[in-house]
Write a structure and sequence with these properties.
The protein is an alpha/beta fold. Helix content is 38%, strand content 17%. It is built from ten helices and twelve strands. Strand 3, helix 2 and strand 4 form a beta-alpha-beta unit. It is flat and about 70 Å long. 38% of the residues are buried.
């Protein structure tokens, strides 16, 4: 009886070991193939021979028989930041993806799917410029998903055409800079901040003391300079007078897609298939294949040295992401860095 139980245990153990090996082969083999520069294809998730910093093409819609043209979908998701997080920043990833799409002779147009409430001013501006440069070479259709507000809207202004889902939140043309005043708390705790500075405004906005009128005016000027840049970008892209924008549309309010179209902030309202349709039309290739750019799996990441499996190209992640569980609650505000200007709607801070 004991011998029979032992035999069953050994059988189960061997089967479990075999299953573990097969799972590892399934996940690691594509990464090995990619890092060795080989190609891989299964009809739906198509990997092409490419350098390690290139992106995979995941088929979304088949093209016509014999048609080699493609429309490339690039996803931009999350709070916009230029921060380097081990695997590169959102800015770097977007620029690389756009560069690959522009240089690929088979890619005739680009759909940039944006799902972002905005973020850092400089990162948004750099991404906008990258999109604008790409759209000068190939049609770029910006598609607004759940939200493309503030910095997300700013980036869309670089596209050839802007489409938004019926329920998309957009707009929020404005700038915010925040800080915390904790002087009273320090006084209660008996703590004193001792500051040595070279000029009156060197510690402007410091939370350890009351803000002076000069500091308030100085910081407000910085915010308004970034705001003027934002408004000018929108004015140039949407052919709307600056005065008209500043008198209402650009006061920080958000819009649902239908109203945004009515106000001429976007071109079309529809689902992402509408963006595909417009991209194919702009490319003059009605049967072009639709492919989605994905970050390739990394063998180093699978072995625990950083990296991650295929994900949207714009979502940056730290090397620790493979070794921890992250819970994201939609709608929670991001942590704003003191003294940093942001393009974010009111509901997100």
């Amino acid at each position: 009886m004991k011998s029979k139980a032992l035999g069953c245990f050994v059988t189960v153990l061997v089967l479990a070991l075999f299953a573990s090996v097969m799972v590892n082969v399934f996940y690691v083999a594509p990464a090995i193939r990619h890092e060795m520069g080989g190609s891989w294809g299964d009809g739906t998730h198509r990997r092409h021979a490419a350098p390690a910093d290139d992106f995979e093409y995941q088929q979304v819609e088949r093209g016509g028989r014999g048609v080699k043209d493609r429309v490339a979908q690039i996803d931009l998701e999350g709070i916009i930041t230029g921060e380097e997080l081990g695997l590169g920043s959102m800015v770097t990833h977007l620029k690389q993806a756009l560069k690959q799409a522009v240089e690929d002779p088979f890619v005739k147009a680009i759909v940039l799917r944006i799902d972002s409430p905005g973020g850092e001013v400089t990162a948004s501006d750099v991404m906008y410029n990258a999109v604008k440069e790409a759209s000068a070479k190939k049609p770029v259709i910006a598609f607004m998903d759940t939200v493309a507000a503030s910095g997300g809207y700013y980036i869309s202004c670089g596209a050839t055409t802007v489409v938004a889902n019926q329920t998309s939140i957009t707009g929020s043309i404005g700038v915010i800079m925040q800080g915390i005043g904790y002087q009273g708390l320090m006084e209660k705790a008996g703590v004193e901040m001792r500051t040595f500075k070279s000029g009156a405004l060197k510690d402007a906005g410091a939370g350890s003391r009351p803000m002076t009128d000069a500091e308030r005016a100085y910081l407000q000027t910085l915010v308004m300079q970034n705001y003027d840049r934002f408004v000018q970008v929108v004015s140039d892209a949407r052919k709307l007078p600056v005065d008209e924008l500043k008198s209402g549309l650009a006061d920080g309010r958000i819009f649902l897609a239908p109203e945004a179209k009515e106000k001429k902030l976007i071109d079309e309202v529809g689902y992402i298939e509408k963006a595909y349709e417009l991209a194919r039309a702009a490319a003059k290739s009605p049967e072009a294949e639709i492919v989605r750019f994905m970050r390739p799996p990394s063998l180093r990441g699978l072995l625990g040295f950083g990296g991650q499996a295929a994900t949207p190209v714009s979502r940056a992640a730290s090397p620790a992401d493979d070794r921890k569980i992250q819970i994201e609650v939609p709608g929670l505000r991001p942590t704003l860095k003191p003294g940093v200007a942001y393009f974010l709607p009111g509901a997100w801070y």
